[in-house]
Structure formats: structure tokens, C-alpha cells
Amino acid sequence: MIDRKQIEEYIDSHVKEMVEDIFALCRINSEKMQAEEGKPFGAGAAQALDSALEMAKGYGFVTRNYDNYVGAVDFNDKEKQLDILAHLDVVPAGEGWQITKPFEPVLKDGRLYGRGTADDKGPAVAALYAMRAVKELGIPLQKNVRLILGTDEECGSSDIKHYYGIEEEAPMTFSPDGEFPVINVEKGRMEAHFTGNFEAGKGSAKLVSLDAGIKVNVVPAKAHAVVEGVEREVLESIAKTIEKETEIHFLFSENGMQTIITAEGQNAHAAHPEGGNNALTGLLTYITRLPLADCQQTACLKSLLGLIPHGDLYGKAMGIAMEDEISGKLTLAFSMLKVREDSLEGMFDSRCPICATEENVLQVVKKQMEAIGVTLHNDGMKPPHHVDGSSHFVQTLLKAYEAYTGRKGECQYTGGGTYVHDLKNGVAFGAAMPGTDNHMHGADEFAVLEELVISAKIFAQVIVELCS
After folding, report:
1. pLDDT digits (tens, 9 = 90+) for 324-347
2. Kindly report the CA angle at 253 between 249 and 257, in degrees rounded to 5?
3. Kind and range of the H or E element at 174?
4. Is 9 among the residues known to form the active site?
5. Is-contact 446 118, C-beta < 8 A?
């Protein structure tokens, strides 16, 4: 019989220790650094892994270091049943911190501030304390739970590729690297890369260059173009019209006979393009309205904009709009474009629901682009990930979440990819509560202490129910 009261009392009596352990790890700068011998992701990641494994050893667990890629903490030596997959690497500190310095964690107003407190050192320690609670309460487990601590999640997850080249997956895996309740569906993805070539225009009014985008998975907030041979009065007049249509703002500056145009919108993650306003498509809308000389370049840009018009976030004009009940709508974010007088190169990021296939997405895009003289270079796309929401595993997670929070537990989907995307029976589970914006990857990243405490209790309950 699982005694929930015992679990709650144990975790509540060890909150101070848990915070100290989180802070000990968060003081280590474990962003990816230059590789050293025996330290594939640099000294910081290796130090964080060593510290976490020593911490677990101190609580009586058996640990293993997989070549400083991944560490493992085992509850017992019995049959595999449950893996908990967390990571100790962090994104770079960045600028703009106000509450504390990035690697000087503090507890203030019920929040743990510092790089890694939420992503993912805080949740990793919460999982460790869940295992510690079960162990020290003397609750017997018939199968093993293993805490897997990775060190390269932020830069491609080569850590777990290494690990799963050695070890088999457990029958069940959850990662506390997201939010509650359960994310059991992750959309597929196509990072479309395309190029085009054309004859340079010979007219006096022309587009000299266009540059937009910094990363394929970011809706661009700014885009830049250089034009020649168009009067400033005409440029500004057309800009006013396009601003009303798109809510993109345009700025102008002179460089000799050329005018530099900057389009300003709002960035967003490509998985959620509705949260931004795409400066790239806004600028293309503007450029294609200018009185430029007719040439292959302008014709190609008009055709390209026809396939990905401003505000079309769901691939309707491209002919790939689709959705299903489990994973929602396909999204499309035109995120990078470089145009010169005789060529263009671009990328867009499409997050694809379960009903998407190479036939109804990739091949359609390829044909559409061929028709306008542009070549799509993709040969495949990343498939979606789906774990049955009615399974015993997922239902156990949801029931534990409901029991400890009083909130309704429901399965969710995401357009983003998580640490478990390539695992057969892996889901994201915690450790933030729905609606908590913990500034992940930003300045003043924080974890809510109460949420980490509840997470540890939920994880302990799940461990007992799945492994007893």
C-alpha cells in the first residue's frame, strides 16, 4: 500500500537539502564548451555530471558514468522498468540578468533564480529526491528506476545517442524537461532548405540584396533589404500601406545611391509562429509591391511569397494545410532568406501533425517549388512522436498529477521536440506547472520552489506505482 502521507512528509522535511543540492549544481557553468580529452562537451558539463553522481552516491545509490556523455543513477539491480531522463547542461548565460548573476543561484519570493534552476537541474534533483524518498522510506521495488543525467540536450542530444548506443530503452521513460500534465505527442518536423538561381536584372530600379533570419527555428523579428533606383518618397508611401496590412514597421537609411530598408516585427519560436509577426514575409510583401524592374529575380520572389504569404502560418497556400484531433494543425514559419541579384537561398520550419507524411507534405512542397524554379533539397522529414494516452503508463502519470495538484490531468501535444522524441515509449512529464513562464533560456531563469517540491512528490508516487 502506497502511503502518500509518508511521501509528502518526507519531501517536505527535505526541502532545504533539495534547494542546497540544486544550487550546488547551478553554480557550475555547464554550457557546452570546447571538448577536452575525456570531456566531450567541455569541463563544465563534466564537472556538473561528476557532482551530480557524487551527490547520488552520497544518498546510497549505485551510479555509472558513460564516458562523460551521460550518468546513470540506479535504485536497484533488478529488471529495467522506468527511466527518468533529465539533463545537466545549460544554454549560455546571456545578458540582462537583474535578480542575480547566472551562476550565483538565489531563493527569493519562493523562486529559485539562476541558469539551470528550471532547465533542467532543478527537475533533475527533484527526480533524485523522489528516488531518495522511496529508498529511505523503505518502500520495496520489484523493478528498477534509473535516473539518466545527460549533458548535451541543448546542442543536439548527442549524449543520449551515445547512451542508447550502449543501453536499451526502459519499457517506460519520462523526462521532467517540460511542463505538466503529460506531453505524449510531438509533431514531426521539416526544416525545408531551398535555393534558386536566375539572371541578374538590368533595370535601374532593383533589389540589390535581402537578408533575414538567424536560426531556422525562430520567426525573425528583423529583416533587411537594399534597393537601388527607387525614390525615398515612393518607398515611404508604400511602406505606410504595407504597415497597415501587416503591422510590420519599416525604417530607412541611405548608403550612397542605395537605400537600406529594415523591417521590424516580433520573433517567436517556430513551433508557435502565431506568437510572432514575421519580419521576413512582411519585407517580402513590401519588396514585391515596389516599382522594380521586371526580371527573373522579382518574379521568383513574387512566386515564393505566393507560396508562403505573410500571415499564412499553416501552409494553406503551399497546399499542405492539415490537422488531426491528436496533434493539431501543421504550422509553417518562413524563417531564413538570403537574396542576391542572381540567386536566393532560404529555409522554413514546418511542424507536422501525426497525419503528415512525406507524400502529403514533402513531395507537395517539392512540386510547388519546382513550379516556380526553386529547388527543395530535402530528402526526408523527422517523423512525429506519439505515445498512447490511454496506456497504463500515461494514465498512471496523469492520476498522480491529479492526486497531488487537484488539477485535471490531460494529454497534450507540442510542436517542439523534447528529450524523448526518439524513444518508443517516452513522454515529457513536468516539472513546471501549466502557465508558468520560468524564463527558460532567458535572463532571470527561475523555478518555483513549490512546483519542484510537488514534482518530487509526484515522481515518488509514480516510481512506486510503476516499479512495485
Report:
1. 999 999 999 999 999 999 999 999
2. 135
3. strand 172-175
4. no
5. yes
| Catalytic-residue membership of 89 | yes
Please state, as a whole number, how many other Cβ atoms lie within 10 Å of the Cβ of residue 95. Answer: 7
Q: Which residues of 218-251 are buried (b: 16+ CB within 10 A; e: fewer)?
A: bbbbbbebebbbbeeeebeebbeebeeebebebe
Q: C-alpha grid cell for residue 86?
A: 533529465
Catalytic residue among 83, 89, 152, 159: 89
Distance CA 56, CA 43 (A): 20
Residue that has been written with the C-alpha cell 494516452 in this structure: 389
Give the three-class secondary structure for 277.
Answer: strand
Q: Which residue has the cell 524563417?
A: 335
* Terminal-to-terminal C-alpha distance of the chain: 10
- Sequence-separated (6 or more) residues with CB below 8 Å from residue 223: 210, 211, 212, 213, 262, 263, 265, 279, 280, 282, 283, 337
DSSP annotation of 90: B
Q: Which amino acid is at 265?
A: G
CB 398 within 8 A of CB 410: yes
Q: Report the C-alpha gap between 462 and 468 in whole angstroms.
A: 10
Q: How many helices (H) and strands (E) does the chain have?
A: 11, 26
Q: What is the pLDDT of residues 280-313, one digit of tens each?
A: 999 999 999 999 999 999 999 999 999 999 999 9
Q: Output 387-392 pairs: Cβ under 8 A, ≥24 positions apart.
A: 387/184, 387/185, 387/425, 387/426, 387/427, 388/184, 389/182, 389/184, 391/425
d(CA 343, CA 296): 10
416 band by pLDDT with thresholds 50, 70 and 90: confident
Catalytic residue from among 31, 119, 152, 153: 153
Q: How far is CA 199 from CA 287, 296, 297, 374, in A?
A: 18, 6, 7, 14
Please, are residues 172 and 423 in contact by the beta-carbon 8 Å criterion?
Answer: no
CA angle 396, 398, 400 (to 5 degrees): 70
Is there a contact between 66 and 158 (Cβ–Cβ < 8 Å)? no
Contact 414/420 with Cβ under 8 angstroms?
A: no
| DSSP result, 12-75 | HHTHHHHHHHHHHHHTS--B----BTTBTT-HHHHHHHHHHHHHHHHTT-EEEEETTTEEEEES
32 contacts 18 by C-beta, under 8 angstroms = no
Distance CA(35)–CA(158), nearest Å, equals 13
> Residue 305: which H helix or E strand, with range?
helix 296-307
Nearest alpha-carbon partner for 129 in 456, 468, 458, 465: 456
CA quadruple 147, 150, 153, 157: dihedral sign:
negative
